[in-house]
């Protein structure tokens, strides 16, 4: 019996199924007898997007799977972050890729545009799946006509999207993970009251500064003190659980009260070794959301350039609808808004020594104790 390796008969084109892939471009204008040169570009750009959407969903499903365990194994955080990072890098590419479609002149698009009606990128099932799996809810969508969102999809696709909405999204899972976070409270320490005291001290110092500032006129002082009262009210809504819940019911905030406390703890004390990775995770969620919004804006601008004020092939007002959707659609907005509640390190209450030790890497604790 020979142990020599046999030359594999695996062939590049077969492995990648290039026959199928490269045979999947069928311009409608060609079938109509007069091929519009740019329709090939239009098809290939869309197909490329769909391939990258597929990869994003592959990563996102793995992240959701890791989070679905009753308790997230913290050792998986690094690989979760690596996957989110990959998603974000792909998204940068997707935003850039719009330049490729912009090499098509609006008049050349008109050569085949009418053949596309009523199909539209609006019906991209994978794009919708990404939005929903990240955490977009039905009520977050911008309506563009009396015709309901799902009516624009084939029945089986609409059923698939509705079913996706019933599963826990990444937003839900991160909320639950944050809400379970330890460290915020024990016999000797309560993060929320310590943070509240720091905020109170900082606001009182600001008030004093405004009142006694020699270069501020009486009018300036009055205006700035009124602004400070507004800031106080904003903090009251954060500190008082009933006020926070009422904001949540109105859709002004989305995270649970416990989760927002944990997120703030992570943001404020992110230098602590054990909090560095959770901070990295929250930062990546913001990054992914920001890239999605950047894509929406970039796509809306490209559409204005391509269509002007024309309506879309899917029946929307075109650029107006897309711009509104870009302005209003955000999934992890609460994490963006955490910046309103931050304090500089100098004004932050130090953590108790015992907690600092818990949040340290084991090795550096040993080293310090030695
Ligand atoms: C000439 C190029 C393009 C034009 C003129 C265009 C136009 C439009 C318009 C007008 C809409 C709104 C719905 C409608 O009325 O049809 C739309 C939505 C959409 N398009 Fe495009 N599009 C183009 C290229 C692309 C590409 C390359 C993609 C990549 C997959 C894409 C993905 C989408 C998505 C996902 C939506 C839904 C956005 C939302 O609802 O917020 N489009 N497009």
From TrEMBL:
Q: Which PANTHER family match?
A: TRYPTOPHAN 2,3-DIOXYGENASE
Binding, heme: 299
Assembly: Homotetramer.
Mind listing the UniProt keywords for this protein, alphabetically? Dioxygenase, Heme, Iron, Metal-binding, Oxidoreductase, Tryptophan catabolism
| Stated role | Heme-dependent dioxygenase that catalyzes the oxidative cleavage of the L-tryptophan (L-Trp) pyrrole ring and converts L-tryptophan to N-formyl-L-kynurenine. Catalyzes the oxidative cleavage of the indole moiety.
Q: Which residues bind substrate?
A: 42-46, 113, 313
Record carries keyword Oxidoreductase: yes
InterPro entries, per database record: Trp/Indoleamine_2_3_dOase-like (IPR037217), Trp_2_3_dOase (IPR004981)
- Species: Marinobacterium aestuarii
Checking HAMAP family in the record gives: T23O
What family is this protein classified in? Belongs to the tryptophan 2,3-dioxygenase family.
User: What's its EC?
Assistant: 1.13.11.11
Q: Which reaction does it catalyse?
A: L-tryptophan + O2 = N-formyl-L-kynurenine
GO molecular function ontology, one term from the record: metal ion binding
Named cofactor requirement(s): heme
The note on the cofactor says:
Binds 1 heme group per subunit.
What's the gene? kynA
Record-given protein name:
Tryptophan 2,3-dioxygenase
């Amino acid at each position: 019996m020979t142990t020599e390796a046999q030359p594999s008969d695996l062939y590049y084109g077969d492995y990648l199924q290039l026959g199928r892939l490269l045979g999947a471009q069928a311009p409608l204008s060609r079938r109509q007898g007069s091929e519009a040169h740019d329709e090939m570009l239009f098809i290939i750009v869309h197909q490329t997007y769909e391939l990258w959407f597929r990869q994003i969903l592959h990563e996102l499903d793995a992240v959701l799977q890791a989070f679905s365990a009753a308790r997230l194994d913290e050792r998986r955080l690094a690989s979760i972050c690596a996957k989110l990072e990959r998603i974000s890098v792909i998204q940068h590419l997707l935003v850039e890729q719009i330049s490729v479609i912009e090499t098509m002149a609006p008049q050349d698009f008109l050569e085949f545009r009418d053949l596309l009606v009523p199909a539209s990128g609006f019906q991209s099932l994978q794009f919708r799946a990404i939005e929903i799996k990240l955490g977009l809810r039905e009520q977050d969508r911008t309506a563009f006509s009396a015709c309901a969102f799902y009516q624009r999809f084939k029945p089986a696709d609409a059923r698939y999207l509705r079913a996706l909405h019933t599963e826990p999204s990444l937003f839900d899972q991160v909320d639950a993970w944050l809400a379970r976070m330890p460290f915020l409270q024990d016999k000797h320490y309560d993060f929320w009251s310590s943070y509240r005291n720091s905020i109170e001290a900082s606001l009182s110092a600001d008030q004093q500064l405004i009142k006694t500032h020699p270069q501020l006129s009486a009018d300036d002082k009055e205006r700035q003190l009124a602004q400070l009262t507004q800031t106080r009210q904003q903090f009251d809504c954060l500190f008082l659980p009933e006020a926070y819940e009422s904001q949540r019911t109105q859709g002004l905030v989305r995270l649970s009260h416990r989760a927002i406390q944990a997120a703030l703890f992570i943001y404020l004390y992110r230098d602590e070794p054990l909090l560095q990775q959770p901070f990295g995770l929250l930062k990546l969620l913001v990054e992914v959301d920001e890239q999605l919004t950047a894509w929406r804006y970039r796509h809306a601008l490209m559409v204005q350039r391509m269509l002007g004020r024309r309506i879309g092939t899917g029946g929307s007002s075109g650029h107006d609808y897309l711009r509104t959707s870009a302005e209003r659609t955000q999934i992890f907005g609460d994490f963006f808004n955490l910046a309103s509640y931050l304090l500089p390190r100098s004004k932050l209450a130090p953590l108790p020594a015992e907690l600092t030790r818990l949040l340290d890497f084991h090795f550096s604790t040993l080293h310090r104790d030695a």
